Amino acid sequence: MRTLVSVLEFGRPVVLAGTTLLRMTCADDVTIHRISDTRYWISGCLNDRGSLWHELQFETAIDTTVKLLGSALYTPEDWMLVQEMADTGVLRIPWFAVPNSGSGEIGPQPVLMP
């Protein structure tokens, strides 16, 4: 199984803990973690990798803009490492990307998202 992680920024403070305002389809063990008043990450183990419908669904009660800041797909082993790095403060959020110069060349260090 792979873990899909998305980092979201809302247009105003929202409280998602203990609600059903945000759902991830085709995923088990969904976790929502608050980064700040307006930023969250959501993760879930994909249970149907053949599906084209891996979605984040928002209830209209959220009533604000939502921006996807980043997403990543991890193996179980990589996700455990990234989650540990996020929990210990090495990563501010559980997402990073390989640098891209725009010309298709890959740089040497991962870009840590602020």
State the gist of this model.
The chain is 11% helix and 38% strand. The protein is mainly beta.
Which parts are unreliable, with pLDDT below 50 for 5 consecutive residues or more?
106-114
Helix content: 10-25%
Rg, alpha carbons = 15 Å
User: What's the overall geometry?
Assistant: globular
Major pleated sheet: 4 strands, antiparallel
**Helical stretch tally:** 1
The run of helices and strands is: EEEEEEHEE
Distance between the termini: 28 Å
Going by helix content, strand content and strand pairing, the class is mainly beta
How much of the residues is beta strand, in percent? 35-45%
Task: Count every beta strand, where a strand is a DSSP E run of 2 or more residues.
Answer: 8
Task: List its traits.
114 residues, mainly beta, two-stranded antiparallel sheet, 8 strands, disordered C terminus
Description:
This protein has one helix and eight strands. It has one helix at residues 76-87, and strands at residues 3-10, 22-24, 27-34, 39-46, 56-58, 66-74, 96-97, 111-112. Strand 3 and strand 4 form a beta hairpin. The longest helix is centred in the last third of the chain and has 12 residues, at 76-87. The radius of gyration is 15 Å and the shape is globular.
